[in-house]
Amino acid sequence: MSAHKSDAVIIGGGIIGTACGYYLSRQGLKVAIVEQGYLCSGSTGRCIGGIRQQFTSSGSIKLMMESVRHFQNMEQELGTDVHWHNGGYLFLAHSPEKKQAFLSNIAVQQAAGLKDVRWVDADECREIAPGMDATGLLGGSYCPSDGQAYPFAVVQGYAGKIKQAGGSIHTFSKVSHILQQGGKVTGVKTESGREFSAGVVINAAGPWSKDVGQMAGIEIPVEAERHEALITEGVEYLNIPMLVDYRADGGYFQQYKHNGQFIGCYSPVPNVPGHSADSTFEFLHEMPKRMLKLVPGLKVLKVIRQWAGSYENTPDGNPILDRTGLDGFYTVAGMCGHGFMLGPAMGRVAADLILSGGRDMPYPEFALKRDFSQAEAMK
Amino acid sequence: MANNTDKIVCRCEDITESEVMAAIEQGATTADEVKRLTRAGMGHCQGRTCRRLVNQMLARALGQKPETQRPITQRAPLQPLTLKALAEYKKT
Q: Which chain A residue lies closest to B73 (C-alpha atoms)?
């Protein structure tokens, strides 16, 4: 079989791969997405769909402000309803230390241009999140322009636009080799032996990005980690923002506006490294406890399903967006649980970086070779 | 997309035969893809009825034997349970 030819091969059909593909297509490149499973079969289709701008690195704040602008226009841009809703995010502070940390984060976020984030006291928290038990609550960091969207619709929307522009999507095609010649990337080869040739190859393989990097002898410091989630039946929209409780027995959950389902998760301690997507009874017992501690009135809601998926973590909690030592081979990965929300802006920025031949690196804090000691505090 | 001669395939999410066929025409080759494109099987019963119907439709459209198709994953709880019941569960 002769090699498939395109301008850019993207490894990974999640939010990052399809967003990169969409923005490259818009600039006239012929894109081929090569995905080991089906679209959204990795991390993107397992996330809970939250979108927030409250970060502590100015790069992430600015990217997320751009992402929110993309989500706001997405229905028109992609011609599909992605269920964007600016329901807001409320981070809860139950200790003076947390309050102090949020206050200084808010100052950083406002300085980066996020004007509507603010500190709200416990009384206002109760108004923002009706039905919430505010016992021990000192207040919270609230950003009403944060929101939610439906990951499957976003990825399908991008994929549709890529195909419209003459690009192609190759599912159930697992890349096994990165092809190169004279220090330049020339394409990829899949396990079944099919070759895809292109002068640009993008590693958007999320939790598998380390393995893909290794195919070219390039070390990508991204580790997969299992996170679990659950979803309830749908009920009338209660107008509660995404609640984020960082306490040891906390979690985060929100209600989808479009169908009324509550969806949530927490970060396991200790963490669970690896690609497992197995779900546990421990989570199915623990997550409802944590949800009811915060909003007791939800007790009558029925859980209809639990599942799991992978975070793709870097040592500092910030993404990797950079060229690599192999000319034409780029990495856009390591989203640390924020891939869906970062995706639209990350795709746009990555496309510009690639079109500049890897020279215009807008976010040095996301470089592949960086000092990983400055951790993102709002992980 | 639904019309009055269309048949309901997924009762929980109100997904019709023509919606499933549209997903297959769009390129879905597995029940997992149909589920993510249409929400068939994402509702309360996790596909108790529609998983067989979707697999039959896929097999027919792709010229496969019905058993070729792997069913969608079912996860706990197999029946919807309240947050209260799950939170208060104690091992005996």
A: A307
CATH number at residue B63: 1.10.10
Query: What confidence category does residue B3 fall into, taking pLDDT thresholds of 50, 70 and 90?
Result: low
Share of chain A above pLDDT 70, in %: 100
Residue B25 lies in a domain: yes
pLDDT of residue B1: 52
Domain that holds residue A156: 4-48+151-222+316-366
Of B73, B75, B82, which has the smallest distance from its Cβ to A300's Cβ? B82
Is residue B92 predicted with pLDDT exceeding 80? no
Take residue B76 and report the two structure tokens written for it: 């706990």
Q: ∠ at Cα A114 (A253, A351), nearest 5°?
A: 85
Structure tokens at A127: 């108004």
Residues of chain B positioned with their CB less than 8 A from the CB of A299: 82-84, 87
Question: Is there a single domain that holds both residue A227 and residue A217?
Answer: no
pLDDT at A188: 98
Are the CB atoms for A33 and A21 separated by under 8 Å?
A: yes
Angle subtended at Cα A330 by Cα A315 and Cα A33, rounded to the nearest 5 degrees: 110
The complex scores an ipTM of 0.94
Q: Which residues of A touch B80 (CB under 8 A)?
A: 233, 302-304
Distance from CA of A287 to the nearest CA of B (A): 8
pTM check: above 0.95:
yes
- Which residue from B30, B36, B76 is facing A279, i.e. has the nearest CB? B76
Nearest to B46 by CA among A253, A337, A279: A279
Q: Total structural domains in chain A?
A: 2
Select from B30, B80, B87 the Cβ nearest to the Cβ of A38: B30
**Chain B residues inside the 8 Å CB shell of A238:** none
What confidence score (pLDDT) does residue A359 get?
Answer: 87
